[in-house]
């Protein structure tokens, strides 16, 4: 089954937003063995959209259409597909009920054009929308399979994962199983990692090995094909073992897991509480930590100590340290980590102080960062970084390094 | 001149990377008045790429092709375009020199396939690559204009800005100027906003009006065409005035500005300092605030008060409030805002407490949020929200509402 993804929306053609839906869907379709041969983007224009549909039908079996299911006038996806396929639109009771409930719950006023969102193509299987109002749908016409999905990624992604994949798997004719696994590394550059496994990459066939670098991390995606799923998994297991025997010290997790996920898991398992003093990161560490559902239980709280005044008065960094060593210093990071743990009554204190940029600070260059970690009231260990990126990249990498150092520290303690 | 962007690369169809080049180029082309009607993505497959070229030629005057200019086996863009257009490839001396220099400078060994990168289509105008080895090029054949650009955004973007735009502007036949402006709204739904300006949308021609909703915000993009740029701006000014006379109370800014940018600007102008107590948002408000270069000067600092213990011990929320009203309450929000301002010695205290989800808290449903704002030591004003989204969406919207309420409050004070 060959697929094509058509995104509908003039905002894509104007460069206002990026077509992240095509990337998400392509990755998901690869996992269930559906080849995507084309992506198309077309504006909110019925004629050009119909033209794109005709081309897609001439070369693809399965056509996914994203966007244009909303309540406004330029949302013309359903109407155009309906007229193109010669299928009438009908109001779906369940979808209508969900829309009415949404307005009741949020105490907002419902307008007539919101009712349009409950219309579906006659005979279509409805994909419920648990994060918005417009339902998705799947319909077959003349051997072609059509799937309509809402444009906002916050609606499309959960809808596809929960209902879309299931709707497809039942219709798949191919018996080849594709298994994919991502290995995640931190603390090693892409070129160096590739060097270490160069022969494996050169001789790859099944599984394939695809490296990708992003924001200080490197990932390797292993993909194996086999008629028996357990055999595909075995092929991946073998290759993973070979790779990790060479660069295992930099490996930290699988697939979509982040360093922060790993940290939250380890803290929860060990019933440890954490607190955080953030200067240059401005709250990013704690924001990411609390974005993981359930992780919040390990976080007592923390202080954003952006000014020297707050470092001194709220977190009691010594006057001598600030005047003699400065706030971008080993000593300041240590005192911040120790004192935030004591203020918040937490097992662990972690601190971030440094120069995010664009300007230098205390004569220290952009990218100078100190991370302090104090566990169980012990004097803090401090790590120094020399990062070379933009303000945004330096902050992101600082938070990742914080997770990485703390994970290492906790594993050392466990093993001791 | 109607344009189409064809991206070549199997990694795009596998979902390994996102087609950010199409977004970048579309935005840039819009600025110089070139309409983009289609984006296409095709894999590293000569047959399917040729097929995509034929379709593009049937509907577009100007075809931009990105990616596949590298030295490896799967880089087939130049060869395919050459055979499709019947133009031979020739080695470009300047490009060859640049490639040799690159290898000399980095002391790396040059392989035969690197020479491939210096090949250009006969008769093409070369676009030099100052950030990599593969040159870009522009060529005309039978009234169609073709532009080939390298795939990596770090090479494509500077190449297009420095050489690509200039190459195009010289070839543009139309002298029509296009001006675009985005109006940003908060606190009103997309459907409701459109209802208010339905007649303007129905009768739009010049300027056009394109609404877009994302994360609780709605934007309207106004685009006007005129042979004289000042007249295009006038057309937009007139339409903006009409729109704002109806929904001006929800308008907060232009183009790429965010609510947080507006807030940071207002605080700086008025030399006001701010502090923040964050429970459900976990640091997101302060992380976003400090991500704006230079904004940090207005932020004294803040407390992430994720636990009741920290609310009580560090921010001194009264025991009575926690036991009687709970932490998800008007009173708790007020005390948090007042006390964080006093702890941090700041002019303004803002607090966020509520239920992000997925589970309810204190018997209060997911999406119940209180935002407290205290200015100059005065008792806090508290706003209540009933949000209906996921954990992530509720946190993002809470931060946006925080900016929105604080902006409103500060403007009220200014006007009083």
Automatic annotation (TrEMBL), chains A, B:
Pfam families assigned: CinA, CinA_KH, MoCF_biosynth
Xref: SUPFAM superfamilies: CinA-like, Molybdenum cofactor biosynthesis proteins
Gene of this entry: cinA
Record-linked Gene3D superfamilies: 3.30.70.2860, CinA-like, MoaB/Mog-like domain
Signal peptide: none
Similarity-based family: Belongs to the CinA family.
Transmembrane segments: none
Organism: Neobacillus notoginsengisoli
Lineage: superkingdom: Bacteria
Name of protein: Putative competence-damage inducible protein
Domain MoaB/Mog: residue ranges: 4-170
